[in-house]
Amino acid sequence: MELTRKETSLLRALATRAGRKKSGCCRCEGLRAVRELFANHPEKIQFAVVTPEMQSAVDFPEELLRIVPEKLFEEFSGTVNSQGIIAVAGIPDAPAGEIAGEFVLAVDQLGDPGNFGTIARSLRAAGQKELWYTKGSVDPWGDKAIRSGMGVQFSMNLRRFDSLADMAEFGKKHGIKNVFIADPHQGENCFTCDSLFDRAMIVIGGEPNGVRGSYPEARRVIIPMPGNYESINAAQAATVLIFESVRRKVM
Amino acid sequence: MELTRKETSLLRALATRAGRKKSGCCRCEGLRAVRELFANHPEKIQFAVVTPEMQSAVDFPEELLRIVPEKLFEEFSGTVNSQGIIAVAGIPDAPAGEIAGEFVLAVDQLGDPGNFGTIARSLRAAGQKELWYTKGSVDPWGDKAIRSGMGVQFSMNLRRFDSLADMAEFGKKHGIKNVFIADPHQGENCFTCDSLFDRAMIVIGGEPNGVRGSYPEARRVIIPMPGNYESINAAQAATVLIFESVRRKVM
Protein backbone atom coordinates (compact mmCIF):
# COMPACT_ATOMS: atom_id res chain seq x y z
CA MET A 1 0.00 0.00 0.00
CA GLU A 2 1.04 3.56 -0.48
CA LEU A 3 2.13 5.83 2.30
CA THR A 4 -0.64 8.35 2.93
CA ARG A 5 -0.12 12.00 3.65
CA LYS A 6 -1.38 11.52 7.18
CA GLU A 7 1.11 8.76 7.79
CA THR A 8 3.89 10.91 6.38
CA SER A 9 3.15 13.70 8.82
CA LEU A 10 2.84 11.24 11.70
CA LEU A 11 6.27 9.80 10.85
CA ARG A 12 7.78 13.27 10.93
CA ALA A 13 5.97 14.32 14.11
CA LEU A 14 7.27 11.28 16.00
CA ALA A 15 10.80 12.64 15.89
CA THR A 16 9.82 14.90 18.79
CA ARG A 17 8.64 14.11 22.29
CA ALA A 18 5.64 16.40 21.79
CA GLY A 19 4.66 14.48 18.67
CA ARG A 20 4.88 11.17 20.51
CA LYS A 21 2.86 12.48 23.41
CA LYS A 22 0.13 13.83 21.17
CA SER A 23 -0.27 10.69 19.09
CA GLY A 24 0.65 8.06 21.69
CA CYS A 25 2.92 6.48 19.09
CA CYS A 26 6.63 6.01 18.53
CA ARG A 27 8.99 5.09 15.70
CA CYS A 28 10.90 1.87 15.88
CA GLU A 29 13.87 1.73 13.50
CA GLY A 30 16.09 -1.17 12.52
CA LEU A 31 15.47 -4.84 11.84
CA ARG A 32 16.13 -6.23 15.30
CA ALA A 33 14.06 -3.50 16.94
CA VAL A 34 11.13 -4.10 14.62
CA ARG A 35 11.34 -7.85 15.24
CA GLU A 36 11.24 -7.25 18.99
CA LEU A 37 8.18 -5.04 18.52
CA PHE A 38 6.50 -7.60 16.29
CA ALA A 39 7.20 -10.45 18.72
CA ASN A 40 5.81 -8.59 21.73
CA HIS A 41 3.20 -6.13 20.56
CA PRO A 42 2.07 -6.97 17.02
CA GLU A 43 -1.29 -5.38 17.81
CA LYS A 44 0.37 -2.02 18.34
CA ILE A 45 1.88 -1.75 14.88
CA GLN A 46 0.19 0.82 12.70
CA PHE A 47 2.37 0.58 9.62
CA ALA A 48 6.00 0.12 8.60
CA VAL A 49 7.96 2.05 6.03
CA VAL A 50 10.50 -0.09 4.20
CA THR A 51 12.86 0.28 1.29
CA PRO A 52 12.19 -2.02 -1.67
CA GLU A 53 15.00 -4.40 -0.73
CA MET A 54 13.77 -4.80 2.84
CA GLN A 55 10.18 -5.75 2.10
CA SER A 56 10.76 -9.47 2.44
CA ALA A 57 12.87 -9.24 5.62
CA VAL A 58 9.92 -9.17 8.01
CA ASP A 59 6.78 -11.29 8.04
CA PHE A 60 4.44 -8.35 8.23
CA PRO A 61 0.90 -8.55 6.95
CA GLU A 62 1.02 -6.87 3.59
CA GLU A 63 -1.52 -4.20 4.50
CA LEU A 64 0.91 -2.80 7.07
CA LEU A 65 3.83 -2.38 4.66
CA ARG A 66 4.57 0.92 2.94
CA ILE A 67 7.32 0.46 0.39
CA VAL A 68 9.05 3.75 -0.34
CA PRO A 69 12.06 4.64 -2.50
CA GLU A 70 15.38 4.71 -0.67
CA LYS A 71 15.68 8.45 -1.04
CA LEU A 72 12.37 9.15 0.64
CA PHE A 73 13.19 6.60 3.33
CA GLU A 74 16.36 8.46 4.20
CA GLU A 75 14.32 11.54 4.98
CA PHE A 76 12.58 9.64 7.76
CA SER A 77 15.57 7.74 9.07
CA GLY A 78 17.40 9.00 12.13
CA THR A 79 20.62 7.24 11.25
CA VAL A 80 23.23 7.39 8.52
CA ASN A 81 23.58 3.66 7.93
CA SER A 82 19.93 2.81 8.08
CA GLN A 83 18.67 -0.73 7.68
CA GLY A 84 15.70 0.35 5.61
CA ILE A 85 12.88 -0.31 8.03
CA ILE A 86 10.92 1.89 10.44
CA ALA A 87 7.71 0.76 12.13
CA VAL A 88 5.22 3.14 13.67
CA ALA A 89 3.55 1.68 16.73
CA GLY A 90 1.38 2.69 19.62
CA ILE A 91 3.39 3.06 22.83
CA PRO A 92 2.42 0.11 25.07
CA ASP A 93 0.30 0.88 28.12
CA ALA A 94 1.97 1.21 31.47
CA PRO A 95 2.31 -2.26 33.03
CA ALA A 96 0.00 -3.43 35.81
CA GLY A 97 1.08 -3.29 39.46
CA GLU A 98 2.83 -6.60 39.87
CA ILE A 99 6.62 -6.53 39.67
CA ALA A 100 8.22 -9.15 37.44
CA GLY A 101 11.60 -10.81 37.90
CA GLU A 102 14.01 -10.68 40.81
CA PHE A 103 14.96 -7.04 41.01
CA VAL A 104 14.21 -3.60 39.59
CA LEU A 105 16.77 -1.52 37.78
CA ALA A 106 15.92 2.15 38.17
CA VAL A 107 17.55 5.20 36.63
CA ASP A 108 17.35 8.65 38.16
CA GLN A 109 17.46 11.59 35.75
CA LEU A 110 19.34 9.68 33.11
CA GLY A 111 19.63 12.10 30.23
CA ASP A 112 21.41 10.08 27.57
CA PRO A 113 19.18 8.02 25.24
CA GLY A 114 22.07 5.76 24.22
CA ASN A 115 22.70 4.89 27.86
CA PHE A 116 19.01 4.23 28.46
CA GLY A 117 18.78 1.86 25.52
CA THR A 118 22.00 0.09 26.42
CA ILE A 119 20.86 -0.48 30.00
CA ALA A 120 17.55 -1.85 28.71
CA ARG A 121 19.41 -4.34 26.51
CA SER A 122 21.66 -5.52 29.32
CA LEU A 123 18.65 -6.00 31.57
CA ARG A 124 16.81 -7.94 28.90
CA ALA A 125 19.84 -10.14 28.28
CA ALA A 126 19.98 -10.89 32.00
CA GLY A 127 16.36 -12.04 31.94
CA GLN A 128 14.94 -9.14 33.95
CA LYS A 129 11.96 -6.98 33.01
CA GLU A 130 11.58 -4.01 35.33
CA LEU A 131 13.23 -0.77 34.17
CA TRP A 132 12.03 2.29 36.03
CA TYR A 133 12.92 5.93 35.54
CA THR A 134 12.31 9.30 37.12
CA LYS A 135 11.16 12.55 35.61
CA GLY A 136 14.12 14.28 34.03
CA SER A 137 15.21 11.07 32.33
CA VAL A 138 15.23 10.71 28.58
CA ASP A 139 12.05 9.49 26.85
CA PRO A 140 12.45 5.68 26.46
CA TRP A 141 10.31 5.85 23.33
CA GLY A 142 12.49 8.34 21.48
CA ASP A 143 14.23 7.26 18.26
CA LYS A 144 17.69 6.95 19.71
CA ALA A 145 16.63 5.18 22.88
CA ILE A 146 14.76 2.60 20.80
CA ARG A 147 17.67 2.16 18.40
CA SER A 148 20.21 1.73 21.23
CA GLY A 149 17.86 -0.61 23.03
CA MET A 150 17.14 -2.45 19.78
CA GLY A 151 13.49 -2.33 20.72
CA VAL A 152 13.75 -4.31 23.96
CA GLN A 153 11.53 -1.58 25.42
CA PHE A 154 8.62 -3.50 23.91
CA SER A 155 9.26 -6.53 26.09
CA MET A 156 9.95 -4.73 29.36
CA ASN A 157 8.02 -3.17 32.18
CA LEU A 158 8.92 0.51 31.94
CA ARG A 159 7.54 2.66 34.75
CA ARG A 160 7.91 6.39 35.13
CA PHE A 161 7.84 8.25 38.46
CA ASP A 162 7.99 11.88 39.48
CA SER A 163 10.79 11.30 41.95
CA LEU A 164 13.05 8.73 43.50
CA ALA A 165 10.96 8.81 46.66
CA ASP A 166 7.77 8.06 44.70
CA MET A 167 9.51 5.24 42.92
CA ALA A 168 10.77 3.72 46.17
CA GLU A 169 7.35 4.01 47.81
CA PHE A 170 5.69 2.26 44.89
CA GLY A 171 8.30 -0.48 45.08
CA LYS A 172 7.84 -0.96 48.80
CA LYS A 173 4.11 -1.30 48.30
CA HIS A 174 4.68 -4.01 45.72
CA GLY A 175 7.14 -6.23 47.53
CA ILE A 176 10.50 -4.49 47.12
CA LYS A 177 12.54 -5.19 50.26
CA ASN A 178 15.51 -2.84 49.81
CA VAL A 179 16.41 0.25 47.83
CA PHE A 180 20.07 0.50 46.81
CA ILE A 181 21.65 3.61 45.36
CA ALA A 182 24.78 3.11 43.28
CA ASP A 183 27.36 5.49 44.67
CA PRO A 184 30.80 6.10 43.14
CA HIS A 185 32.34 7.01 46.48
CA GLN A 186 31.07 4.76 49.27
CA GLY A 187 28.75 1.93 50.13
CA GLU A 188 28.48 -1.83 50.44
CA ASN A 189 30.61 -3.80 47.99
CA CYS A 190 28.35 -4.85 45.12
CA PHE A 191 30.11 -8.18 44.79
CA THR A 192 29.52 -9.26 48.37
CA CYS A 193 26.25 -7.55 49.34
CA ASP A 194 23.87 -10.46 49.93
CA SER A 195 20.55 -8.73 49.49
CA LEU A 196 21.38 -6.78 46.31
CA PHE A 197 19.16 -8.82 44.00
CA ASP A 198 16.59 -10.17 46.40
CA ARG A 199 13.42 -8.27 45.52
CA ALA A 200 15.52 -5.10 45.52
CA MET A 201 15.51 -1.87 43.60
CA ILE A 202 18.89 -0.62 42.36
CA VAL A 203 19.12 3.03 41.37
CA ILE A 204 21.69 4.37 38.92
CA GLY A 205 22.16 8.10 38.34
CA GLY A 206 22.91 9.94 35.16
CA GLU A 207 26.43 11.22 34.62
CA PRO A 208 28.16 13.28 35.77
CA ASN A 209 26.13 13.89 38.89
CA GLY A 210 25.16 10.40 39.97
CA VAL A 211 21.85 9.94 41.77
CA ARG A 212 20.36 13.30 42.71
CA GLY A 213 17.13 12.18 44.31
CA SER A 214 17.13 10.77 47.80
CA TYR A 215 15.26 8.25 49.92
CA PRO A 216 15.96 8.02 53.63
CA GLU A 217 15.96 4.23 53.88
CA ALA A 218 18.18 3.70 50.86
CA ARG A 219 21.39 1.72 51.23
CA ARG A 220 24.49 2.67 49.24
CA VAL A 221 26.28 0.22 47.00
CA ILE A 222 29.65 0.73 45.35
CA ILE A 223 31.42 -0.94 42.44
CA PRO A 224 35.02 -1.32 43.57
CA MET A 225 37.50 0.35 41.19
CA PRO A 226 41.08 -0.68 41.82
CA GLY A 227 42.22 1.79 39.17
CA ASN A 228 41.41 4.59 41.58
CA TYR A 229 39.34 6.24 38.90
CA GLU A 230 36.53 8.71 39.39
CA SER A 231 33.66 6.78 37.84
CA ILE A 232 32.55 4.75 34.87
CA ASN A 233 29.76 5.53 32.44
CA ALA A 234 26.21 5.06 33.82
CA ALA A 235 25.39 2.28 31.37
CA GLN A 236 28.60 0.47 32.29
CA ALA A 237 27.84 0.73 36.00
CA ALA A 238 24.34 -0.62 35.42
CA THR A 239 25.69 -3.48 33.34
CA VAL A 240 28.25 -4.48 35.97
CA LEU A 241 25.48 -4.70 38.55
CA ILE A 242 23.03 -6.46 36.22
CA PHE A 243 25.55 -9.14 35.30
CA GLU A 244 26.60 -9.59 38.90
CA SER A 245 23.05 -10.90 39.35
CA VAL A 246 23.63 -13.31 36.46
CA ARG A 247 26.93 -14.49 37.93
CA ARG A 248 25.30 -15.37 41.23
CA LYS A 249 22.73 -17.45 39.39
CA VAL A 250 25.00 -19.39 37.07
CA MET A 251 28.15 -19.78 39.14
CA MET B 1 48.55 34.36 23.89
CA GLU B 2 46.60 34.64 20.71
CA LEU B 3 45.64 31.72 18.56
CA THR B 4 47.81 31.82 15.44
CA ARG B 5 46.59 31.04 11.97
CA LYS B 6 48.71 27.91 11.87
CA GLU B 7 47.16 26.69 15.10
CA THR B 8 43.70 27.40 13.75
CA SER B 9 44.28 25.26 10.69
CA LEU B 10 45.82 22.50 12.81
CA LEU B 11 42.75 22.49 15.05
CA ARG B 12 40.50 22.09 12.03
CA ALA B 13 42.69 19.46 10.36
CA LEU B 14 42.62 17.27 13.47
CA ALA B 15 38.94 16.55 12.97
CA THR B 16 39.97 14.00 10.35
CA ARG B 17 42.09 10.87 10.60
CA ALA B 18 44.24 12.10 7.73
CA GLY B 19 44.92 15.34 9.58
CA ARG B 20 45.92 13.45 12.71
CA LYS B 21 48.19 11.14 10.77
CA LYS B 22 49.93 13.99 8.99
CA SER B 23 50.57 16.07 12.11
CA GLY B 24 50.93 13.27 14.67
CA CYS B 25 48.59 15.25 16.93
CA CYS B 26 45.07 14.88 18.27
CA ARG B 27 42.42 17.05 19.90
CA CYS B 28 41.43 16.38 23.45
CA GLU B 29 38.12 17.97 24.43
CA GLY B 30 36.48 18.34 27.84
CA LEU B 31 37.79 19.11 31.31
CA ARG B 32 38.32 15.56 32.56
CA ALA B 33 39.97 14.51 29.31
CA VAL B 34 42.36 17.46 29.39
CA ARG B 35 43.21 16.76 33.03
CA GLU B 36 44.02 13.15 32.16
CA LEU B 37 46.25 14.37 29.35
CA PHE B 38 47.95 16.90 31.62
CA ALA B 39 48.54 14.33 34.36
CA ASN B 40 50.08 11.77 32.02
CA HIS B 41 51.69 13.57 29.11
CA PRO B 42 52.14 17.27 29.93
CA GLU B 43 55.12 17.32 27.56
CA LYS B 44 52.86 16.46 24.63
CA ILE B 45 50.58 19.47 24.97
CA GLN B 46 51.05 22.02 22.22
CA PHE B 47 48.36 24.48 23.20
CA ALA B 48 44.81 24.58 24.55
CA VAL B 49 41.88 26.63 23.31
CA VAL B 50 39.61 27.78 26.11
CA THR B 51 36.63 30.05 26.51
CA PRO B 52 37.12 33.04 28.81
CA GLU B 53 35.23 31.43 31.69
CA MET B 54 37.31 28.24 31.54
CA GLN B 55 40.75 29.80 31.67
CA SER B 56 41.20 29.26 35.38
CA ALA B 57 39.90 25.68 35.42
CA VAL B 58 43.23 24.08 34.51
CA ASP B 59 46.70 24.79 35.84
CA PHE B 60 48.23 25.19 32.44
CA PRO B 61 51.32 27.28 31.89
CA GLU B 62 50.04 30.54 30.52
CA GLU B 63 51.99 30.32 27.29
CA LEU B 64 49.94 27.27 26.31
CA LEU B 65 46.55 28.90 26.75
CA ARG B 66 44.66 30.45 23.85
CA ILE B 67 41.60 32.25 25.12
CA VAL B 68 39.00 32.58 22.38
CA PRO B 69 35.47 33.97 22.36
CA GLU B 70 32.72 31.40 22.93
CA LYS B 71 31.47 31.76 19.39
CA LEU B 72 34.81 30.91 17.83
CA PHE B 73 35.26 28.06 20.30
CA GLU B 74 32.01 26.50 19.15
CA GLU B 75 33.38 26.27 15.64
CA PHE B 76 36.12 23.96 16.88
CA SER B 77 34.05 21.96 19.32
CA GLY B 78 32.73 18.56 18.29
CA THR B 79 29.90 18.62 20.81
CA VAL B 80 26.79 20.65 21.47
CA ASN B 81 27.22 21.07 25.21
CA SER B 82 30.90 21.79 25.18
CA GLN B 83 32.84 22.43 28.37
CA GLY B 84 34.90 25.16 26.78
CA ILE B 85 38.29 23.49 26.59
CA ILE B 86 40.16 21.64 23.83
CA ALA B 87 43.84 20.77 24.06
CA VAL B 88 45.98 19.90 21.07
CA ALA B 89 48.60 17.32 21.88
CA GLY B 90 51.05 15.03 20.18
CA ILE B 91 49.82 11.45 20.08
CA PRO B 92 51.96 9.49 22.56
CA ASP B 93 54.48 7.03 21.11
CA ALA B 94 53.59 3.37 20.94
CA PRO B 95 54.46 1.75 24.28
CA ALA B 96 57.55 -0.43 24.68
CA GLY B 97 57.34 -4.22 24.54
CA GLU B 98 56.57 -5.07 28.13
CA ILE B 99 52.95 -5.80 28.95
CA ALA B 100 51.55 -4.05 32.02
CA GLY B 101 48.87 -5.32 34.38
CA GLU B 102 47.25 -8.73 34.61
CA PHE B 103 45.50 -9.09 31.28
CA VAL B 104 45.07 -7.50 27.88
CA LEU B 105 41.72 -6.33 26.56
CA ALA B 106 41.74 -6.46 22.77
CA VAL B 107 39.12 -5.32 20.30
CA ASP B 108 38.83 -6.71 16.80
CA GLN B 109 37.48 -4.36 14.14
CA LEU B 110 35.55 -2.27 16.61
CA GLY B 111 34.04 0.49 14.52
CA ASP B 112 32.23 2.61 17.09
CA PRO B 113 34.30 5.38 18.74
CA GLY B 114 31.87 5.65 21.66
CA ASN B 115 32.33 1.95 22.40
CA PHE B 116 36.09 2.25 22.15
CA GLY B 117 36.22 5.12 24.61
CA THR B 118 33.80 3.45 26.99
CA ILE B 119 35.85 0.25 27.04
CA ALA B 120 38.99 2.28 27.70
CA ARG B 121 37.33 3.94 30.70
CA SER B 122 36.14 0.64 32.17
CA LEU B 123 39.60 -0.81 31.78
CA ARG B 124 41.20 2.20 33.42
CA ALA B 125 38.73 2.03 36.30
CA ALA B 126 39.63 -1.62 36.80
CA GLY B 127 43.29 -0.70 37.08
CA GLN B 128 44.42 -2.27 33.80
CA LYS B 129 46.49 -0.61 31.09
CA GLU B 130 46.65 -2.74 27.95
CA LEU B 131 44.07 -1.97 25.28
CA TRP B 132 44.90 -3.44 21.90
CA TYR B 133 43.06 -3.15 18.61
CA THR B 134 43.19 -4.49 15.09
CA LYS B 135 43.16 -2.69 11.77
CA GLY B 136 39.58 -1.86 10.88
CA SER B 137 38.91 -0.50 14.36
CA VAL B 138 38.13 3.13 14.97
CA ASP B 139 41.02 5.55 15.55
CA PRO B 140 41.48 5.78 19.36
CA TRP B 141 42.74 9.34 18.92
CA GLY B 142 39.67 10.65 17.14
CA ASP B 143 37.54 13.34 18.81
CA LYS B 144 34.68 11.09 19.80
CA ALA B 145 36.84 8.24 21.07
CA ILE B 146 38.75 10.67 23.29
CA ARG B 147 35.55 12.30 24.55
CA SER B 148 33.91 8.94 25.35
CA GLY B 149 37.11 7.74 26.95
CA MET B 150 37.48 11.03 28.80
CA GLY B 151 41.10 11.00 27.77
CA VAL B 152 42.08 7.78 29.53
CA GLN B 153 43.85 6.92 26.28
CA PHE B 154 46.71 9.06 27.57
CA SER B 155 47.33 6.75 30.51
CA MET B 156 46.99 3.43 28.69
CA ASN B 157 49.10 1.18 26.54
CA LEU B 158 47.30 1.25 23.20
CA ARG B 159 48.73 -1.11 20.59
CA ARG B 160 47.58 -1.54 17.02
CA PHE B 161 47.98 -4.72 14.98
CA ASP B 162 47.19 -5.70 11.42
CA SER B 163 45.25 -8.78 12.44
CA LEU B 164 44.09 -10.85 15.38
CA ALA B 165 46.77 -13.42 14.58
CA ASP B 166 49.52 -10.77 14.71
CA MET B 167 48.13 -9.49 17.98
CA ALA B 168 48.05 -12.96 19.50
CA GLU B 169 51.58 -13.73 18.32
CA PHE B 170 52.90 -10.52 19.85
CA GLY B 171 51.13 -11.37 23.10
CA LYS B 172 52.55 -14.87 23.19
CA LYS B 173 56.05 -13.51 22.69
CA HIS B 174 55.56 -11.17 25.63
CA GLY B 175 54.19 -13.54 28.21
CA ILE B 176 50.51 -13.93 27.35
CA LYS B 177 49.47 -17.47 28.27
CA ASN B 178 46.01 -17.72 26.72
CA VAL B 179 43.95 -15.97 24.07
CA PHE B 180 40.20 -15.85 24.73
CA ILE B 181 37.64 -14.79 22.16
CA ALA B 182 34.32 -13.52 23.54
CA ASP B 183 31.64 -15.47 21.72
CA PRO B 184 27.90 -14.79 22.03
CA HIS B 185 27.00 -18.42 21.26
CA GLN B 186 29.38 -20.83 22.95
CA GLY B 187 32.45 -21.15 25.11
CA GLU B 188 33.67 -21.43 28.67
CA ASN B 189 31.59 -19.59 31.26
CA CYS B 190 33.31 -16.26 31.95
CA PHE B 191 32.37 -16.42 35.62
CA THR B 192 34.00 -19.76 36.28
CA CYS B 193 36.89 -19.90 33.80
CA ASP B 194 39.98 -19.94 36.04
CA SER B 195 42.60 -18.70 33.61
CA LEU B 196 40.61 -15.79 32.14
CA PHE B 197 42.66 -13.04 33.77
CA ASP B 198 45.98 -14.76 34.32
CA ARG B 199 48.31 -13.13 31.78
CA ALA B 200 45.55 -13.60 29.22
CA MET B 201 44.33 -11.68 26.20
CA ILE B 202 40.57 -11.27 25.86
CA VAL B 203 39.25 -10.33 22.43
CA ILE B 204 35.93 -8.54 21.89
CA GLY B 205 34.47 -8.04 18.43
CA GLY B 206 32.60 -5.09 17.02
CA GLU B 207 28.85 -5.42 16.63
CA PRO B 208 26.98 -6.93 14.94
CA ASN B 209 29.49 -9.44 13.66
CA GLY B 210 31.47 -10.34 16.75
CA VAL B 211 35.10 -11.29 16.33
CA ARG B 212 35.91 -11.78 12.65
CA GLY B 213 39.60 -12.57 12.89
CA SER B 214 40.73 -15.99 14.02
CA TYR B 215 43.59 -17.61 15.88
CA PRO B 216 43.84 -21.40 16.01
CA GLU B 217 44.82 -21.69 19.68
CA ALA B 218 42.14 -19.28 20.91
CA ARG B 219 39.68 -20.45 23.54
CA ARG B 220 36.09 -19.24 23.48
CA VAL B 221 34.46 -17.54 26.42
CA ILE B 222 30.78 -16.74 26.81
CA ILE B 223 28.85 -14.37 29.05
CA PRO B 224 25.80 -16.33 30.19
CA MET B 225 22.53 -14.60 29.28
CA PRO B 226 19.54 -16.08 31.07
CA GLY B 227 17.27 -13.75 29.11
CA ASN B 228 17.90 -15.88 26.03
CA TYR B 229 18.85 -12.76 24.15
CA GLU B 230 21.04 -12.53 21.08
CA SER B 231 23.83 -10.35 22.40
CA ILE B 232 24.68 -7.22 24.33
CA ASN B 233 26.56 -4.19 23.09
CA ALA B 234 30.33 -4.67 22.63
CA ALA B 235 31.20 -2.13 25.31
CA GLN B 236 28.83 -3.83 27.75
CA ALA B 237 30.34 -7.24 27.06
CA ALA B 238 33.84 -5.85 27.60
CA THR B 239 32.75 -4.19 30.83
CA VAL B 240 31.20 -7.37 32.22
CA LEU B 241 34.47 -9.22 31.61
CA ILE B 242 36.66 -6.40 32.92
CA PHE B 243 34.71 -6.14 36.17
CA GLU B 244 34.65 -9.89 36.60
CA SER B 245 38.42 -9.48 37.02
CA VAL B 246 37.79 -6.86 39.69
CA ARG B 247 35.32 -9.08 41.50
CA ARG B 248 37.82 -11.91 41.75
CA LYS B 249 40.32 -9.54 43.31
CA VAL B 250 38.12 -7.84 45.87
CA MET B 251 35.73 -10.61 46.84
Helix content of chain A: 25-40%
| Protein chains sharing the most extensive interface | A-B, 38 and 37 residues
Major sheet details of chain A = 7 strands, parallel
Distance between the termini of chain A: 52 Å
> How many strands appear in the DSSP assignment of chain A?
11
Query: What radius of gyration of chain A results from the CA coordinates?
Result: 19 Å
Helix-strand pattern of chain A: HHEHEEHEEHEHEHEEEEH
Coarse structural class of chain A: alpha/beta
Number of helices of chain A: 8
| Beta-strand residue percentage of chain A | 15-25%
Instruction: State the strand order across the main sheet of chain A.
Output: 7-6-5-10-8-11-9
Based on the structure, what is the oligomeric state of the protein chains?
homodimer
Query: Which regions of chain A have little confidence, pLDDT < 50, spanning 5+ residues?
Result: none
* Overall geometry of chain A: elongated
Average predicted confidence as pLDDT of chain A? 93
Explain what this protein looks like in three dimensions.
The structure is a homodimer of 251-residue chains. By secondary structure, chain A is of the alpha/beta class. Chain A is built from 8 helices and 11 strands. In chain A, the strands form 2 sheets. In chain A, strands 7-6-5-10-8-11-9 form a 7-stranded parallel sheet, with helices on both faces. In chain A, strand 5 (103-108), helix 5 (113-125) and strand 6 (130-134) form a beta-alpha-beta unit. In chain A, helix 5 packs parallel to helix 6 and helix 5 (113-125) packs parallel to helix 8 (234-250). The first copy, chain A, is elongated, with a radius of gyration of 19 Å.
